[in-house]
Fold this sequence. Notes:
Layout: E1 5-9, E2 12-16, H1 26-38, H2 44-49, E3 66-68, E4 85-87, E5 92-100, E6 105-112, E7 117-122, H3 129-137, E8 144-145, E9 153-154, H4 156-163, H5 167-182, E10 186-192, H6 194-209, E11 215-220, H7 228-237, E12 241-246, E13 272-280, E14 283-290, E15 314-315, E16 318-319, E17 340-342, E18 348-351
Parallel strand pairs: 2-14, 7-10, 10-11, 11-12, 12-13
Antiparallel strand pairs: 1-2, 3-4, 5-6, 5-18, 6-7, 8-9, 13-14, 15-16, 17-18
Amino acid sequence: MHDNDVLLCGTELKLKHKDNHAGYNHTLAKILVEYASAVYLSDLTELFSWTCSRCDGLTKVHDICLTYYVGTCSEIVHLRCISSYVQCKQGFEVIELIVDVQHGLQGYVGVAKDPNAIIIAFRGTQGQSIQNWIEDLYWKQLDLNYPGMPDAMVHHGFFSAYYNTTIHPGILTAIKEAKEIYGDLDIMVTGHSMGGAMAAFCGLDLAVNHEAQNVQVVTFGQPRIGNAAFASYYSQLVPNTIRVTNGHDIVPHLPPYYYYFPQKTYHHFPREVWLYEFGLGSLVYRVEKVCDDSGEDPTCSRSVMGNSISDHIVYYGVELRGETCRSCGIVMDPRVAEYRKTDIQGNFIFSRNPAASVLRLDAQSDV
């Protein structure tokens, strides 16, 4: 097959572009978008024990047993009043859940059996603040020289969200623990929106500063985070990277790209995969176009106006935002207290020993 050949299967149309950079795997992208969706949960008990409804698709609970008892729910934040049972499934194990309350950030590290890898996921901007965050993206300046990369510039806010918060040491600790138990697994990093920006910095950090050999980054609806020099360094150091964009999603268009100032403007790194739809008569075809290696392919998402928030919050049919009723707060069950560590700023980490095959959250109430 030749460059930009078109594959048509049912109502799904896929355009492929061949070269030596990252290859796009449709199935893997659909798996990782579910991990990126799960990290938005504000019910930390469900997320840490991996019993959430968003965890039931391609991602399954891995040797984690959650025991419930009949009791009064008024005494416990999120205890379900049901008969006693034990739930155990296979597939994914959360090792560490990090909540940076001070900066409104959240992420987790776990181990998946399929794919056989360490999964790291970062949450995007939450709830009602997303509109203000998008408006702020128009004005973010390239104001920080990326360490060790001449001429590479990024925005300090994106950089600091990963490097200068509770998230950074928490992620590194969890990776070390996972590798001590499971060996030298591949690492897959994902995130949506602002979480995609953090995922990109995480992948770069692991490859450059921690000598990780097999790092793959897949982001969804990620904003631009640096200039052309940064994008060039990034694509060489983390070549196995896919940025998925969707329709008219506004966020990948921000901060703005000014083609007439190529050395002074923000610039995406490759490889973009653009999801969009087009109609032929009564049929609507879904297209997954693998874009060129410039990072700013004018025939992909840059070919349309970036003016949609609704295209930003649904990728591959998966919703990427917090639940409306809980997006502004945290739900936490007292049963997970023994797994929680809190710092002086009020940020907390839920951590479990991956060597222990069973996480038990026994919750017998005083009745």
